Automatic annotation (TrEMBL):
Ranges where the UEV domain occurs: 2-131
PROSITE patterns registered for this protein in UniProt: UEV
Top-level taxon of the source organism: Eukaryota
GO molecular function: L-lactate dehydrogenase (NAD+) activity
Protein name per its UniProtKB record: UEV domain-containing protein
Native organism taxonomy: Eukaryota, Metazoa, Chordata, Craniata, Vertebrata
Length: 476
């Protein structure tokens, strides 16, 4: 395992605990010397280990806070292998083990994890050989050695039709489609309406609204069919979403159960019937989750889709962040500043705010800044002014259009969206929170963490604990 190459040094320099991470990798190399290093992509520039355990090809992604956070583990079968879904492996090859759930460095290490993996896979082999029709045992395990990957970004999606699919025919789904269709109509007729660049530069070529029967949120899809908006297709078949660049999921399947957990479980069950199909039909798409509760449902969608976390995001606090920045700059600072503020954390009363540099390009070195004693009163006043505004369908629809626009145009604009928070600011749990992320054609990239005030940090930690505990109650 070569750790002295320039690409490796460059990526390792971004790790929060670089020296400890190198020491851990050196220990791993002594026990498993066949591990190799190559390049690949996951959520950002991250180390990723592909090797073999019990003669099975495995891949371990190491977050930038490794080794204090656990790796994300997958089986990587060859074309003539088949995955056997079971207790420790899902249908897409994601590995779930007690050692991952209870990770606690230095007690936990990759070497110890691989030992546990070997023991579990001996009890319940997760891979078999596809039948070739020549009488060979289809359950025969294959010996395969893979490699360790390191990335500087992924492949660009194929250029072509910019297709956006909206799943869910309720008020929110209708609002998302109507706002996007307004953009298309405005572009088609070259209107001179006084609207911003979002409307003047629509990248959407085709819109699809899918009104699925599982959703309890139904609306005016018949009206869309009657009035036949240009470039808008209405369907009840998920296959109509095939080839989308962005898939927006607004559907909710609320039940009449009394407990909150039971109500959310109904949504989770609906997702299990649609998310895997959506991911299969549009494997390079960005999944934008708007179903409620968005922090939990984005986490569920990521688990069920098995897409990288860069491509599964939630609407999160994008709307609140845009509102707060507007209020701060227009109402309170009288246009004397171009400050950007982002609301982060759980979509609840535990949200907190951070400052950031202005501009939309990642090349402008956007960084987050904590709220200080001098800026805290300003932030609090801005948040107070926003109380009671709520999230109406049309306002959330505008936020959806804003996020979609950044993805389709590779705008590299920063949004506070729901994303995998594990590894950010020392968060060790696998939870999804709203964090500032740069959005583009390759999905999302988180901005680096920032020191929070003790009060704000306590709110964030409370949200992490609450979301993590609640997620364990769900049947994914």
């Amino acid at each position: 395992m070569e750790l002295n190459s320039e690409p490796l040094k460059k990526i390792l320099s971004k790790y929060k605990f670089r020296d400890v991470a190198i020491e851990e990798l050196q220990k791993l190399n002594r026990v498993y010397p066949d591990m190799k290093l190559k390049t690949g992509s996951y959520s950002e520039s991250l180390l990723n280990v592909l090797g073999h355990s019990y003669n099975l090809p495995i891949q371990l992604w190491l977050l930038d806070s490794f080794p204090f956070t656990p790796p994300i583990c997958f089986l990587r079968p060859t074309s003539n292998m088949m995955i056997r879904e079971g207790k420790h492996v899902d249908a897409k090859g994601r590995i779930y083990l007690p050692g991952l759930h209870n990770w606690d460095h230095p007690k936990s290490s990759v070497s110890v994890l691989l030992e546990e993996m070997i023991a579990k896979f001996e009890e319940d082999p997760p891979l078999g050989m596809k039948s070739t029709g020549d009488g060979k045992d289809p359950n025969e395990l294959l010996a395969c050695v893979s490699h360790l990957n390191i990335t500087e970004g992924g492949n660009r999606p194929d250029k072509g039709v910019n297709k956006v699919s909206v799943i869910g025919g309720g008020d929110l789904g209708m609002a998302a489609v109507l706002i996007q269709s307004l953009i298309l109509v405005n572009l088609s007729y070259k209107s001179c309406l006084p609207i911003n660049d979002l409307f003047l530069k629509s990248p959407v070529d085709k819109l699809v609204l899918i009104d699925i029967p599982e959703s309890s949120t139904k609306g005016g899809t018949m009206d869309l069919e009657i009035f036949s908006l240009p470039n808008v297709e209405v369907s009840k078949d998920l296959s109509a979403s095939a080839g989308s660049k962005v898939v927006v999921v607004t559907a909710n399947a609320w039940s009449e159960e009394q407990s909150y957990a039971s109500v959310v479980q109904t949504n989770v069950d609906m997702y299990s019937r649609i998310i895997p199909s959506l991911a299969r039909l549009s494997p390079t798409a960005v999944l934008l989750i708007v179903s409620q509760p968005v922090d939990i449902m984005t986490h569920v969608a990521w688990r069920q889709s098995c897409l990288p976390p860069t491509h599964v995001i939630g609407a999160g606090c994008n709307l609140e962040s845009e509102r707060l920045s507007y209020v701060l700059n227009i109402a309170l600072l009288a246009n004397k500043s171009d400050k950007q503020a982002w609301v982060i954390g759980e979509v609840s009363d535990n949200k907190v705010a951070v400052w950031g540099s202005s501009g939309t390009s990642v090349d402008k070195h956007q960084v987050l800044a904590p709220v200080t004693s001098s800026t805290k009163p300003l932030i609090e006043r801005g948040l107070e002014m926003l109380k009671g505004r709520g999230q109406r369908s049309w306002s959330v629809g505008l936020s959806i259009a804003d996020i979609t626009h950044s993805v389709l145009t590779d705008q590299r604009k920063t949004h506070s969206i729901t994303t995998l928070a594990q590894g950010w600011g020392g968060i060790g749990s696998e939870v999804f929170l709203s964090l500032p992320c740069v959005l583009g054609a390759n999905g999302s990239t988180r901005l680096a963490g920032v020191a929070l005030t003790p009060e704000d940090d306590a709110k964030l930690r409370e949200s992490v604990t609450s979301l993590s505990n609640f997620f364990t109650q769900l049947r994914i």
